[in-house]
Amino acid sequence: MDIPPLAGKIAALSLGALPVSYALNHVSALSHPLWVALMSALILGLLFVAIYILSGGEISYDPLYAVFALFAFTSVVDLIIALQEDGYVVGFMEFYTKEGEPYLRTSHGIFICYWDGTVHYLLYLAMAGAIHKRKRYRNLGLYWLGSFAMSILVFLPGNILGKYSSEIRPAFFLAILYMLVPCWAGRKVFNQSRAPTCCTPNVVHEEQRKGLLQRPADLALVLYLILAAFFTLFRGLVVLDCPTDACFVYIYQYEPYLRDPVAYPKVQMLMYMFYVLPFYGLAAYALTFPGCSWLPDWALVFAGAIGQAQFSHMGASMHLRTPFTYRVPEDAWACFFLCNLLYALGPHLLAYRCLRWPAFFLHPPPPGALAHHRKQQ
C-alpha cells in the first residue's frame, strides 16, 4: 500500500488552531456553555468557508477533502486539550473543557484526544494529500473509518450513561453531528475502486487449493481469533456483573478500571462483545474457506477500531485522572499489558496478511479463464 504525501496546505491551516484557541481562552464571554457551543459552531463554519475558497478544486473532485481538512483542525484542538490536561501547556482550551465538554477531562477523554491529535491527524493529512495528488486512499480511509466510529460509539454513550450525564452541555450536540460523518464517509470510501492486485488466476487457484494446515500463518491467526473471542466474551461478562469467581477475581485484581463509574470501559467491553466478537468468528471462517473477498476491507476497519479502543482503554486504566482504586494494580501490570497489547496487535496482523497476500480471498477464477491463462504460459 502506497503512503500518499501529506497535505502541506491542510497542515498549515490546521495549525491555526493554536492562536485561535489561545485567543478564545481569554474571551470572558465564553464562560457560558451556550456561548461556547455557538462560538464553536461559528468557527467550524468559517473554517469550512476558508477551506472551500482555498481548495475548491479538491473538494469538487472529492468532497471528503473538506471533511479531512476540517477534522485536521479539530485534531490539533484535541491534542492541545490532551496536553493541557496533562499539564504540558496552559492557557489554551480551559474554557472549553470547563464549559463545553467537561468529560474530556477524564482519563478516557484525554486519551481519545491524544489518538485524535496524532493518529487521526496524520491520516487526515495523508488522505487529503492523496486527494490533492489524485491518488487512492481507500485502505487509509477504511482504517480511519473504524477508528473514528469506535471512538464516537464509545464516547457519546459513555457521556450519557456515566457519572458525567448531569454535565451534558450544548456543545455535546455538536459531537452528535459527528455520528453522521462515518455513515456518509464510509459509504464513499467503500465505493472507491480497490487497488489492482497482481495475482494471476493460476496463483489464485493454487493458493485456494491449500488447506488451513498448509498455511501456518493463517492457522496461527485462526487460533489467535479463537482465543481473542473467548477473551472478548469473558470481559463482556465481567462488565455485566457475572457472579463467577473468575470474573470477580479479574475485575478486582487485574482490570478494576472496568468498574469505573464513568461508564466508558463498560461501554467499550460491550462494543467488543456485540460487534468485535461476531467479526472474529467470521474472520476465522474467511481464513478457513477461500473466496471471502469482504475480509480485507473489514479487517482494516476493525484494526482501526480496536487500535483506537485499546489505546484509550490501556491509557485510561493507568492514568492519574483515574481514581487509584480503579487503576491497574502494580503486580498485574505485566499480565494487563501483555493481554491488551496482543489484543490490539492481532487485528493489525490480520489486516496486514489480507493486504500483503490477497489471493486466498479473491473470487475463484472461472475454469475457462484458468485454462486460458495456462495456455498463454
TrEMBL record:
Residues 61-186, 217-351 form the EXPERA domain. GO terms for cellular component: endoplasmic reticulum membrane; endoplasmic reticulum-Golgi intermediate compartment membrane. One of its GO terms (biological process) is regulation of lipid metabolic process. It is found in: Endomembrane system. The keyword Zinc-finger does not apply. Keywords: Membrane, Repeat, Transmembrane, Transmembrane helix. Coiled coil: none annotated. Pfam families: EBP (PF05241), TM_Tm6sf2 (PF26083). The chain crosses the membrane at residues 33-53, 65-83, 103-128, 140-162, 168-185, 219-240, 269-287, 294-311, 331-352. GO terms for molecular function: identical protein binding. It is a multi-pass membrane protein. Belongs to the TM6SF family. This is Transmembrane 6 superfamily member 2. The lineage of its organism: Eukaryota, Metazoa, Chordata, Craniata, Vertebrata.
